[in-house]
Write a structure and sequence with these properties.
With about 800 residues, the chain is α/β, with parallel strands linked by helices. It is built from 25 helices and 29 strands. The protein has an 8-stranded parallel β-barrel with strand order 11-12-13-14-15-16-17-18, surrounded by 4 helices. Strand 3, helix 1 and strand 4 form a beta-alpha-beta unit. Helix 1 runs parallel beside helix 4 and helix 5 packs parallel to helix 6.
Length: about 800
């Protein structure tokens, strides 16, 4: 494993010779040392094969400089320069710097022969130099050019740059990939500077098998490990400790035997990472002795392998115990600490708590878009209920913000991924892990390499636009239509090969998907408005007619599909993605393990208005005996958001309707919302909500804070002489957690209470003392001391009603 390093990225222009603006390399020969190692030869083969795939040009590999004046591409480690660098060997030797994973790329002419030299300071340096060259090449059918590449020397900013690739049923595509697909994907990641891959063991919190598996998990683990070793990449294993009684010696003995079988079967292991929770949850005083024993067992087969651990899901008592063990016992078997989801302190604070001899690795969740470590900020509920947690989610700007804020506290990262939906995000992290540059530059390299040199900027801009599709209220975001038009322009110009490219298909899928959802949102919003207008017309003698007209208007959303051309294209692209990369966008059609696991096709038509809730209310109204009761119930519906004279209403999950919510820091300063409020979502339709009824859309989204951070609201300019009453809806995915409300930090509005189920508005009097100064500050808190996902302080709607 590469030793931790604090070296920042070094890109030094050498100015040794003028750079040729466009070097034609179509007829080049690749020269390698006759004594090249197997991995050096692998790097050369990678270069030749990837150029061939994109151009049809097949370069020959030679071990001596060829005669003639055809271009030469010389590859090798700097120590072997005399055997591959020809007349430039002496010059290269003088320039040697010897940094881990560094490379030098120089462009020369020798007797009018174009020469490109890639020299690595070590084996990995050569691999990453070849990757840089590939990203710099302008490739098209029958032609290869090197455009305006300055001579450079480059070394990575962070010593660990990798991604978790979990072959398990929970993922939205990985479980259907066989070794050739894994080889290509691992190769792609290496081309962009990744130096580590994290595998998962056969036993996790997942199902034991998948109908998509091409081979057993342990066999696949071994094969993926060999692939990584062929390229010289580190192999990590994310290994959760799932048993609940590691204080029992028999359980420990069985775990050592079970893990040992995996350790022995996997040919290369550089490190094991054991999460303290999510999944598994073991108290540190039992977990750490277990891992000490597992480290000893690991090193029977892999004597240099390391053990890492994270304090995920620990409550405060357990976190204190964990830190005390590190400080007081200073376990020598432990290599470092991992910062991942559900760690109750921020990364800077964790770094200050953990003794300096233990490096910290980041384990950022780049795959989920909601109910996760770094959720999409202020996501519109229409996106959240359709696209869901594991949609195609290029987030270059958000990912760069997370990286730049937190990464300096670490030696590097291995990202948390559960499928190819986050493909773009992986390359953003890899690129920033090598050197700090604008995300658009990384996206241009990504687009030029994977989509085509001609589309290099246009496709990069499309990926940026897809992130902008998710900014702000969807109904008013006209960017979505612009993005679709840009995607369709690229689609019309694409040849058959590009149309079959899964990365191209993913971007199109998102562009069509977003546009269809927006068209449907506008349509269904109008239908609900018409239904409410019909209800407002109700009189004692026309109640049933008003209900019928309202229900007929709402029913049109299910009877008449809007923008059917966009919907049909989404379905066609879902089929294309299944054929090209086995992406499982539907449970029924493609065998996704669950709707929440990337099955975005199954939620494409999720209702975007309140029609299900309204129809349920209409049935209740019809059951009422008296007309005055029915009219009162109708008025309650049409005046739902009206707090009355002198009152206030907030929809805490709607960023356009939460004027009294205290937001806190912006996303770029607190992306995990450890100190701030953010918008969360839950549809209220899972098994935990069985019998809970259908939710209004204003209950699906909510404001929330994490852990013991209070959720706060503030009102000003109240009438000091008036009395006020609060009406509140506690929805969210933490319905089983108690919640408390305090006014002005000292007046208890209500103690810790169980959230009502089924979800419904509840009311409380506001102490007069809290509003006597014309200002009211409200603060909600969840039960303290829990060790879990941190959620619980969740509020969907709030009315402050003047009595």
């Amino acid at each position: 494993m590469t030793k931790p390093q604090t070296l920042l990225a070094v890109v030094i222009s050498l100015l040794l010779a003028p750079t040729v603006a466009a070097v034609d390399l179509t007829t080049a020969t690749v020269v390698v040392s006759p004594q090249a190692s197997a991995r050096n030869q692998k790097a050369a083969a990678l270069l030749v094969e990837e150029v061939d795939k994109r151009t049809g040009v097949r370069w020959q590999i030679a071990t001596t400089w060829p005669d003639g004046d055809a271009p030469v591409i010389a590859l090798g480690e700097i120590d072997a320069a005399p055997s591959f660098a020809g007349p430039f060997a002496e010059e290269l030797a003088r320039l040697s710097s010897r940094r881990p994973e560094a490379f030098r790329l120089v462009s020369r002419e020798h007797h009018q022969r174009p020469v490109v030299i890639v020299s690595g300071d070590d084996e990995r340096g050569l691999l990453f130099g070849v990757g840089h060259l590939l990203r710099a090449l302008a490739m098209q059918a029958g032609k290869v050019e090197l455009n305006a590449v300055a001579d450079l020397y480059s070394a990575p900013r962070y010593s660990l740059r990798g991604h978790q690739l979990g072959y398990r049923p929970k993922t939205n595509a990985y479980d259907a990939w066989d070794l050739p697909v894994w080889d290509q994907y691992i190769r792609d990641l290496a081309v962009f500077g990744a130096n580590a891959i994290e595998l998962v063991p056969p036993r996790t919190d997942d199902d034991p098998t998948s109908p998509h598996f091409p081979r057993p998990q342990l066999e696949m683990m071994a094969g993926m490990s060999r692939i990584c070793d062929d390229y010289g990449l580190d192999v990590w294993i994310w290994y959760p400790a799932l048993d609940r009684d590691y204080d029992n010696p028999r359980t420990v003995e069985a775990a050592i035997e079970e893990w040992g079988r995996v350790f022995d079967a996997v040919p290369r292991i550089d490190a094991i990472f054991v999460p303290g929770g999510d999944p598994g949850r073991t108290r540190p005083k039992y977990l750490m002795p277990l891992l000490e024993k597992q480290t000893a067992r690991l090193r029977v087969k892999h004597p240099q392998a390391q053990m890492w651990v994270s304090p995920q899901s620990f409550n405060q008592e357990w976190l204190d115990e964990f830190i005390a063990i590190l400080k007081n016992e200073q376990p020598k078997w432990l290599a470092g600490v991992v910062f991942g989801p559900q760690v109750r302190v921020g990364l800077p604070e964790l770094r200050s708590l953990v003794p300096q001899q233990y490096p910290i690795r980041h384990y950022p969740d780049i795959t989920h878009s909601r109910q996760c470590q770094y959720p999409v900020p202020d996501w519109d509920v229409a996106h959240a209920v359709t696209s869901g947690r594991e949609c195609v989610n290029p987030r270059p700007v958000d990912q760069a913000a997370i990286f730049r804020l937190l990464q300096p506290h670490t030696i590097g990262f291995l990202t948390y991924s559960e499928g190819c939906n986050d493909d773009v995000n992986k390359f953003i992290w890899s690129g920033l892990g090598w050197d700090d540059r604008p995300p658009i530059d990384i996206l241009r390299e990504y687009s030029g390499y994977f989509i085509g040199h001609a589309q290099r900027d246009a496709f990069a801009q499309l990926l940026m636009a897809l992130e902008r599709n998710w900014r702000g209220p969807l109904a008013t975001n006209q960017q979505v239509e612009v993005t679709l038009a840009q995607a369709q322009d690229l689609e019309r110009a694409a040849d058959a090969k590009l149309r079959g490219n899964w990365r191209f298909q993913q971007a199109l899928y998102r562009a069509y998907y977003d546009a269809y959802v927006r068209r449907r949102l506008l349509w269904e919003t109008d239908l609900e408005a018409a239904a409410l207008d019909a209800l407002r017309s109700a009189k004692p003698e026309s109640i049933e007619a008003a209900l019928g007209a309202a229900q007929q208007s709402l029913a049109r959303a299910d009877q008449e599909h809007v923008a059917t051309d966009l919907r049909d294209r989404v379905y066609a692209l879902a089929e294309d993605l299944w054929q090209s990369i086995r992406m499982q966008t539907s449970v029924e059609k493609y065998g996704a393990i669950d709707v929440d696991r990337g099955a975005t096709l199954d939620t494409l038509d999720f209702p975007l208005n309140n029609r299900r809730w309204l129809v349920e209310q209409f049935a209740v109204i019809r059951s009422l005996g008296a007309a005055d009761q029915q009219l009162a119930a109708i008025r309650k519906i049409v005046d739902w958001k009206n707090p009355g004279p002198g009152g206030f209403y907030d929809d805490f999950g709607d960023t356009a309707a939460q004027p009294h919510l205290v937001r806190g820091l912006p996303f770029a300063e607190d992306p995990a919302s450890l100190l701030s409020s953010h918008v969360g979502f839950d549809e209220g339709i899972d098994e935990d909500n069985a019998g809970g009824g259908v939710w209004r859309h204003s209950w699906i989204d909510h404001a929330e804070t994490l852990l013991e951070q209070p959720l706060q609201a503030r009102y000003e300019n109240l009438d000091p002489a008036a009395r006020y009453r609060l009406r509140v809806v506690y929805a969210g995915d933490g319905l089983r957690k108690m919640i408390r409300l305090v006014a002005d930090e000292r007046f208890e509005v209500h103690p810790f209470v169980q959230k009502p189920f089924p979800v419904r508005p509840i009311e409380f009097d506001v102490p007069a003392e809290a509003t006597a100064d014309g200002v009211l500050e409200l603060s909600w808190s969840r039960e303290p001391g829990l060790g879990d996902n941190g959620r619980g302080s969740q509020v969907s709607e709030l009315w402050l009603i003047r009595q």
